[in-house]
Task: structure prediction
Amino acid sequence: MTLNVKILTIFPEIFPGFLGTSLTGKALDEGIWRLEAVNIRDYAFDKHGSVDDTPCGGGAGMIMRPDVLGSAIEHNYTGGKIIYMSPKGKPLTQAKVHKLSREENLTIICGRFEGIDERVIEEYGVEEISIGDYILTGGEQAAMIMLDAVVRLLPGVLGNAASTENESFEQNLLEYPQYTRPIEWKGRKVPDILMSGHHENIAKWQRQQALQITRTRRPDLLEKGLDFE
Ligand code: SAH
Result:
């Protein structure tokens, strides 16, 4: 199965950007996912390619017009979810990333200026997703971060499927601390237990560490409940 992604943007040249490198880039070359960046300006009604206008009711900035954006959606939509990257959306979580990685088609609207006309969201049943409680200049950056997280979960992208199992957020836990060689560096030693070769004790230690780190840094995750034990 291939994940088909359509991006609606006024800056198509940003794509694939960093998604074209490393694991996500290899997966793109191999056809595990496809990416098409559509220029919303191509659907403008004037020769200047105007996509925005002043906000009704006054206020600062510009708003993306519903008629132009609507036309871009209608000419390019081939099924599946329509997502608008938006600070007002539901915060993206690893659980949501897993859900998105099982979709076949994603159409993603990238806002600019002060955002898009609310009627577009109502008309097309658009789902709003936020990547965090801060404001970016555009949805392109947010879309790329979300896609990076989604694509690495597609079958065949990571060499070892097991490598995601213990990662931060996978069981509502942050990951335990990790070490590699040299065993001693600047007088700091790798914890003895990790060099013991006792797999059961190592796994126990790692679970305890993960719990402790999560308790101190992100108690909110523990309130969601543990998926193991
Ligand atoms: N006036 C808007 C912010 C507009 S920022 C507000 O106050 O809610 C411009 C565009 O950047 C948005 O349309 C959105 O597509 C994108 N964007 C900004 N912050 C984002 C975030 N945290 N998550 C997802 N997209 C974001």
Notes: The two ends are 33 Å apart (CA to CA).
